Amino acid sequence: MSKYKDRKIGQTKLKPESMMMSYGYDPQLSEGAIKCPIFQTSTFVFKTAEDGKAFFELALGLREKGPTEALGLIYSRLNNPDLEILEDRLTLWDDGEAAAVFPSGMAAIATSLLAYLRPGDVLVHSDPVYGGTDYLLKHYLPEFGVDVIGFPAGVPIADVERSVRERVAGRRVPVILIETPANPTNDLVDIEGTVALGRSLALGDQRPVVIVDNTFLGPMFQHPLQLGADVSLYSATKFIGGHADVVAGACVGSADVIKKIKTLRTFIGTAAGPWTGWLLLRSLETLKMRMTAQMKNAQYVAAYLKDHPRIRSVNYLGLLGEDHPMYEVYRRQCTAPGSLIAFEIDGGQAEAFQFLDALQLIHLAVSLGGTESLAEHPATMTHSDVSAEDRERLGISESLVRISVGVEHFEDVIADIEQALAAVRSGPARAPRRAPAAAATP
Ligand SMILES: Cc1ncc(COP(=O)(O)O)c(C=O)c1O
Predict the structure, then answer these.
(1) Which residues contact 439 (CB under 8 A, 6 or more apart)?
(2) What pTM did the predictor assign?
């Protein structure tokens, strides 16, 4: 950690969780308030016209920043203290130089992609991705003249490299977008392998920017920037927000890359507001505790599911067997298995729905990463816009259920799953077992 932020006490370099309550905030600028106030303001008063001129010159990149000069506050579509402090704190987890916050994860994705893509370009991406992302890539981007090429998650990059290169056919690829682990299957994509693939697609000295949707494991258990990626991107609605009460997004990366994304953010107006910033500042203080507790709970839940006679397969990173083709990637790029579990119930949609309707503690709702456990049916909910053919190919079956494990006591979560599985009536003949893409063995 901390190429950029080196705060130490004696010889001890402070860890991100120790800096979440203070980093980037000076109480003396806010009447001594220990917490950053909500700067609920659209615009900021300049002391002098010269100041206003200088702030605009820097914000619009009309000249380089002087050695002691700071970016001045101008207008809340450009910057706001709650957002700036939040962005500074977000850089600590991923060890990035800069960050940008958005009013949703989709705004983060759309703004980042549009900052780089132009008509005639190719976007390479892993498949599956979150249903909203899938729709943006497969329906909107082609209308703007961008050709979109997907490759499957859950397999080594060496297995897909040749076919990607053939389909790109020498065209310009400004961005590779991967989502790992993938929503909803938990399939992994090799980040370092993708960065190498990007280098091999470079035209001259122009290589693709590698954007990693790090929503499922980050910013705690996977650090894409340290593996050579350019942007670690989040639906901050999920673990970063963590309480199912705010929708937001974020990107973390090098100063150059984030500057390009933020410039477009200014002009298409996709900056988050101060209230969102304040809520996320509050959430960041407990991020490590929440993600750790949820991950520990999920390990118990996954272990219970894998032995249940009514469960056909369980995709949970903690159950990846050493013989799985992605096991080495898991060891290399993830520090813990997280708290998302995808599993198939014996039967089909009817059995999955019976299970979901019988839950008492776990809520039947989309989204993930919050304090309460949530369960959903990807094929008819988050991924219902994905074509039936793609769902079949990517393992988003009718019997697949995705659970986000919360901070409740794990025994209570398991008790709920147990009674809901018992409520599933015996369906028709048992469907054959599908070999899970990301493992159900230990
Ligand atoms: C992996 C992933 N990326 C992006 C998004 C979109 O984020 P938001 O709903 O905050 O726009 C989601 C939402 O579920 C997601 O799961």
Answers:
(1) 315, 316, 319, 320, 321, 324
(2) 0.95
